[in-house]
Specification:
The structure is a homodimer of 419-residue chains. The first copy, chain A, is of the alpha/beta class. Chain A has 16 helices and 17 strands. In chain A, α11 packs parallel to α16. The interface between A and B is large, with 95 and 95 residues. β2 of chain A pairs antiparallel with β2 of chain B.
Chain lengths: 419, 419
Amino acid sequence: MQTINASIITIGDELLIGQVIDTNSAFIAQELNKIGVWVKRRVAVGDVREEIWKALDNEAAVSDIILITGGLGPTKDDITKPLLAEYFSGKLIMHEATLAHVTYLFEHVFKRPMPLLEVNRKQAEVPDVCTVLKNDVGTAPGMLFEKNGRIFISMPGVPNEMKFIMQRHVLPMIKEKFELPYIGYKTLMTVGIGESFLAERLKNFELNLPSLIKLAYLPNHGMVRLRLTAQGEKQQIEKLLEENFNILKQQVEDVMAIDEDITFEILLGRLLKDKHKTVTTAESCTGGYIAHLITSVAGSSEYFKGSVVSYDNSIKENILHVNNETLNAVGAVSEETVQQMITGILNVMKADYAVAVSGIMGPGGGSAEKPVGTVWIAVGNHIKTETKKMNFRFDRKRNIELTGINALYLLCSFIRNDN
Amino acid sequence: MQTINASIITIGDELLIGQVIDTNSAFIAQELNKIGVWVKRRVAVGDVREEIWKALDNEAAVSDIILITGGLGPTKDDITKPLLAEYFSGKLIMHEATLAHVTYLFEHVFKRPMPLLEVNRKQAEVPDVCTVLKNDVGTAPGMLFEKNGRIFISMPGVPNEMKFIMQRHVLPMIKEKFELPYIGYKTLMTVGIGESFLAERLKNFELNLPSLIKLAYLPNHGMVRLRLTAQGEKQQIEKLLEENFNILKQQVEDVMAIDEDITFEILLGRLLKDKHKTVTTAESCTGGYIAHLITSVAGSSEYFKGSVVSYDNSIKENILHVNNETLNAVGAVSEETVQQMITGILNVMKADYAVAVSGIMGPGGGSAEKPVGTVWIAVGNHIKTETKKMNFRFDRKRNIELTGINALYLLCSFIRNDN
């Protein structure tokens, strides 16, 4: 069994000026990990000839597979492609099949004026020493090179084009070409306990883990995912993982939210489909973010009825029928208000379950009594509601995200426990 | 005037398995660019001693400033900090002021059981050869080292802690320590024209640009931002930029959406505050995403009343009063439906302006007549509405994002032209 290492090189000034957040590398790394390829390094360089050349040399020295994204756009000053031709001792030629594809796209999909511009035609040029990886969803093709036993793959930086080429061409090619180890994962999510306290609790568990298995702490949005990973022979790995995952689950039983690696919005959909029930949201401080999370799941129209974002108090009163007296007496950010929002939204939407939130996300709007980060969350059905007060202490963006994920967690728990 | 180069090193296996998307590097790069520091390379390495050491050596060879994030969490196997101590020929000592701060945080902010765990105490250890950069918002302090004329800064990987240390300590230090060039920017956003066609149109403009000024094409979400950048002596730069920006604006007048570098949700807020008007959204396919964008802006409660997410057709009928006949005759994804949604939501929310969207985001729900990606957008006030049909051809996530940004663009245009 070989250990196969990969490096990811991203090319483009836009990454070095911070214009673009690099989501491609995370996707590539995840996909490679799933098939048993270890990503050793990730490097970002600008549209500078010497920098790209040096990065290719450096990464080829440590990795078997070098994945390159970016540097192929129509206004990229023609640096990357000629450089690749030279690096692999070839020359640029027009690739007729790609040209036909680009022509087709402009004519029938983009519906842009013909004839093609020179820069568009150039997208169909490739070094004569590469294997072209057809890009069905865009104009710049992927290119595969081999040199000194290393494999180099160049892909466009547009995320959906890169993903297409990875899934259609690159991952199948790697699986065929290399004898890869089997990699097994088991993941669970904890809520309400910090990373250091988890680590303290799991000290002995970690010490007693078989050497084949590694435990990773993956904190995100105030929750910590625990992941067991092992690689080796499939049957042995699966059995070992199963046994140790069961022990881990027992150790964190009181703080475990899900025993698999899915988001709460996906879990919510599964719970609701199982019960043939529907859900709605009444949102103040999250401004539609919870509904957005729920509807980011394909097929959510099966169980999601809709939402009212009651940002202004008049909407809380007029549509959700929150009492004016309540708003005056205890304010919009209160347990009473979110409880009444649940009742109101369930009636308006004729749904089975609801979640309601009201809080102060900042930077303004806080007071001594209700500082920025104060949030009331309610979840419920037509029979009962449950409420929780949260105190976040971050910026507006993160406070909204944390409110959203906590609201979905409480909603999932409520639905799971509702028989 | 020196040219100051920086490298960013991110440490952590979570980046190499794709668990985490690296947003820190983009923030750091943006902030450094603003003050005239050029980011030469970004490198991500795992929690592996030799890899970190080599990255420090490599980056110190090419950059004046090396910014390091990550590798400092409580379960990080104690690799990075001891390595930094050794790399800079020091030893780890307890930093009493940091320990007092960590103790305070656990006692008064996190409200966690005392006494501190060993791993929490360890967060207050630092190499005795560093300058401690106090982290007011977390437990792991920043650390500044100098070696052979290079400056190294180590920061925690938690985004808001990194941002705090950058803004409080690192950026002021760099500005004081180095004589930096003045960097000027002028940015505008175009809509409805591809990068290659823009480049074709601006070919002569680019050829005639003074050598001090660079033009960058920054495509994102189907729109292309054009940015002029120049560095040098402030007054000269400002004047040159102003002149050339005016020429650029004339060249793209017909496709320009905004002549500055802001988002449509921020522009929307500014337009509404200027006119003392309010806005609402009626969303089907975007599921609350447009409301989420609007409310991501601090102070949006001043002009945003609320939203109805009418995912289910019953909500379109019952709350927004879309005609049942319309839904039966032409369907929910139609010009008539979004027009009626505008009328309905304006009445329900008692707002001045509204945007309504209905479409098919995929992967399911498409038909030959209305394929996935078909979207109707309407914007309007109590007097008139304008509609637009869009055809996107991406995955669910991107279709939602593109619908959101286009809806906000149309809304801003409508409000700007409404006198």
